[in-house]
Amino acid sequence: MHPPHRLLQSALALLCSATLLGSAEAALQPLDDSELAEISGQALINLDALTFAGFEYTRINFGTDIDLLLNVDELRLGNYARSDAGTVSERPADIWIDNFALGRIDDANSASASVVPFQIRDPYLELAFKTNADGAREVAGIRLGFGRARGDLSGDMHALTGVMQGLVTGSASTAREYYMQQNNLNAFTCTFDFNCLALSMAGNSEIFSQVELVKAGSGETGIDGLPINRATHIGVPKGESFHTDNTLLEPLLPLIASNNGDCKASGLPACFALLNYQSIFVGDRTQTDLDIGGARGIFFSLQNQNVPWQDLASSTGAFIPTQSGAFANFAKTGSGAQAIYPFIVSLYEALNGAARVPTCMGGQAKGC
Q1: Under a CB-based contact definition with an 8 Å cutoff, are residues 127 and 291 in contact?
Q2: Which tens digit of pLDDT belongs to each residue from 212-250?
Q3: Comparing C-alpha atoms, which of 282, 273, 234 is closest to residue 102?
């Protein structure tokens, strides 16, 4: 596979540019001992090192906030021939996103256009080393990660590899309306259709499900013991179902709204093409405070072998296994009712797709 030097160069350029933009001109003045005693703080850059499972890690932490409006014509990582059991598409790269962008522009085609940046807190760059069979210490992988991240991520997503755990949520009535449109039903004929009748009984109850990268047509998240890679779809995993807080409806949903290996739930699509989602909001849209609304644990990595990366969003110090190639990590934190998802998609958007937010000044929505 291609070496990770290109990601390293891009990451360094991005972080260095962002820190330099925040600098200001000032004359240097010496401080006496009493003034120094009143100052405390942390360096902008610090290093962490650890070992695990035969790997040695060096992490460069950048203690800074970065606001980004970024447009990239094409993002390809892990662009090499691949034929292992987990490969579920003929896409040429592990991660392939055209017109990739971070951030958005409100009122883009007017004089009052304003940038709404993608916010990053505490970015870091990490190298994994391992001693090879000849006794030489070599770079096994590299990752670029964020302590917190919040904002719009856009692109034509042809393929993704890694962990993408989001939440899709919405009213059962939205699902019923979509089902009726797709099957040319009306209020009368709906009563003779099992799925439509079941959705009608659910009324306006909120239904929700975790969605992950899945194999198109089945919803599998793994094949022959390997996680899938080069996924083109995201959806309700095989064997999982929608849920609700409605105590009367909840026992019925596993029966009528499960993906049983056909990417259907209550007769509706349960797996959705990534290309349908031109923009997703990372983090909590309702919380503007980055400490509260920022998603944790996000990283992109490249590795020439299977490398475990420490989960910095976990209090247990757990490690995330990755296969050789490129990997994107957008994982939930916590579990059960305490789970926090890096992105939430409305049921309407899941069924109908999500339009791209403008990322360019003027009439162009993309391809600046």
Answers
A1: no
A2: 999 999 999 999 999 999 999 999 999 999 999 999 899
A3: 282
